[in-house]
Amino acid sequence: MSKFSHKNENSDFISHLPEPIMHYILSLFNNKECARTCVLSKTWKNVYYSKPNMLFHEEDFIPSNSFINSLEGRNLFLNYVDQSLNRAIEMKSNHLERFELHLTLCDPDGIPQSNVVNQLLRKVFGLGVKTMSLILDFLDNPSHLVLESKTLIEVHLDCFSFIKACKTINFPHLRVLSLFHIDLPNKALEMLISGCPCVEVLRLSHCSTSQNLQLLGLTKLVEITVSFCRDVETVEIRSLFCQNIYVIDDCNESATITLLGCETMSNLHLNVWLSNEFSEFKWLVELKLMNLVIKGRISSQSIKRLVIRHCTAETEMVQICCQNLLSLEYEANDIPFHFDGLCDLRDFTYGFSLLQNGRYDQINSLEKLFGSTFNVMKNLKMVILLGPLKVNTLILNLFLTFDFYRCINIYAFSNNILFVKLINIFIISGSNYFGGVD
Amino acid sequence: MAEKASESSNSISLNTVDGKIFKVSPTIANQMQTIQSLIKAYDSSRVISLPHVNAFHLSKIIEYLEGKSATTVSAVKEFEAQFMKDLSLKQLKGLLIAVGYLKVNELLELMPKTVAKLIENKSVEFLRKFFGIVNDFTPSEEAKIREEIAWAFDGVDED
């Protein structure tokens, strides 16, 4: 039996723990549970209101089956947020690590008034907030919000009219900026960039922007993600540090994107075709192409790692010319590609699913993929990712046809389980094919 | 001096507030961040005194760290559960403070989780009784707070 139930040890142990430990304990609870602890005693109330994380989510506050008029409910909620901030200010706790305000119960009557939000944010900034997440449905007053904070490092915004509702933005130390569902015409974008000059990581998702996304003032930008921003056709970046560029779009096959001034980029992930030549990017090391139609040759001396997942080709056979490739990951049943001069390849991961008739036609495709260069790839480590397997003998047939290279390590996985590990078996006779069965 | 250093080069001596000396291996000592920084700051042959930690708590911490490193990955959960179960409420508090002072990261994660589990889904009355928390609000003060956070009591059965 646990000793926890011994009654004689009931001298209040928990209220006198160091505050950081109390805060950590509270952080393990959901918002409701957490708030209930402040009824326990004055100590607990103080601990609750001095928490470094203040997370206000409307869906916790207003039960979904409530009959409260939603406008009334929202006002009560915003009032509570305000009171909590006042308490934190009274206690002079100026170590607010994280502030979240999520007004997610969308209702046209429940419009958050810009001035209410403005007042709340002023208090939040006064508390020295470091990271902030705001999800608001609508702000009515354009050019109204005054946003100034020297402590903010990370901001997540989700509100269509947010930037238009801003009068001033001044976050001189902001490093991570995520924007969701935001209306970002050029003027708004310029204001945002000049107010956040030190942004290193920028994420734009589902934003409505102009066709030419110009990110000129962000000289410290290291990483940019543009996802599901339908209007974007060109992205222009003038940053000497920009290394990672990720462009994700819904599968609009005709769309292409152009990158301007991204000379220092080393990692590029795309699921929309790029109109630039890959050889323009002298420092490009990793290229990931996912779910897109490949519309031209891929040629680059610098690429070391190439990932192609579920891509198709516009022409019957696409030439891929990356002589210095070390690692290749290919996933799809068809291989409309031909690789030139892959002498240095060390790792090759190949994923495909079993064809309907139970044959692995992919083996022939593999020969097509590499052509004669397979013979010179001495130290290749090959991983085969198979779709769900039903019949074990199928894999035997698969490997029987592998007779075109030697000294290669092969691992075959199905459903993430190591299925067979075959090492140097192709020079041994047939009975030993499964010498390394795991 | 040189002799002494070579003698103790493999173990670090820790002196608790009640005067007991523990010798621990560097791998164990380095898992206590406070001690790690003290080792860096001082000559490692010196006895490090810990004015805020008593022998019982230090022995428990060492027991946990040594026990865990000797346990296989799959059995760690069981080991941790047993370790926590063997502690009384009073011991839990003292140990948590010692762990906080010595900055033993793994225990700093594990122990508050145990405490959180004790609090989770419990009524206010139960928690006051269980932990011996003195309600220092007047009835009207308490009613006011309950009203303020009425949303947090939504769907909760008070006993």
Automatic annotation (TrEMBL), chain A:
The keyword ATP-binding does not apply. Keywords: Membrane, Transmembrane, Transmembrane helix. The chain crosses the membrane at residues 382-405, 417-435. Residues 146-227 form the F-box/LRR-repeat protein 15/At3g58940/PEG3-like LRR domain. This is Putative F-box domain, leucine-rich repeat domain, L domain-containing protein. SUPFAM superfamilies: F-box domain. Pfam families: F-box, LRR_At5g56370. The keyword Plastid does not apply. Residues 14-46 form the F-box domain. It comes from Lupinus albus. It comes from the Eukaryota.
Automatic annotation (TrEMBL), chain B:
Keywords: Kinase, Transferase, Ubl conjugation pathway. The keyword ATP-binding does not apply. InterPro entries: SKP1, SKP1-like, SKP1-like_dim_sf, SKP1/BTB/POZ_sf, Skp1_comp_dimer, Skp1_comp_POZ. Pathway: Protein modification; protein ubiquitination. Gene3D superfamilies: Potassium Channel Kv1.1, Chain A. GO terms for biological process: jasmonic acid mediated signaling pathway; protein ubiquitination; ubiquitin-dependent protein catabolic process. Residues 10-66 form the SKP1 component POZ domain. SUPFAM superfamilies: POZ domain, Skp1 dimerisation domain-like. GO terms for molecular function: kinase activity. It comes from the Eukaryota. It holds the Pfam family Skp1_POZ. Residues 106-152 form the SKP1 component dimerisation domain. Belongs to the SKP1 family. Part of a SCF (SKP1-cullin-F-box) protein ligase complex. Involved in ubiquitination and subsequent proteasomal degradation of target proteins. Together with CUL1, RBX1 and a F-box protein, it forms a SCF E3 ubiquitin ligase complex. The functional specificity of this complex depends on the type of F-box protein. In the SCF complex, it serves as an adapter that links the F-box protein to CUL1. This is SKP1-like protein. It comes from Lupinus albus.
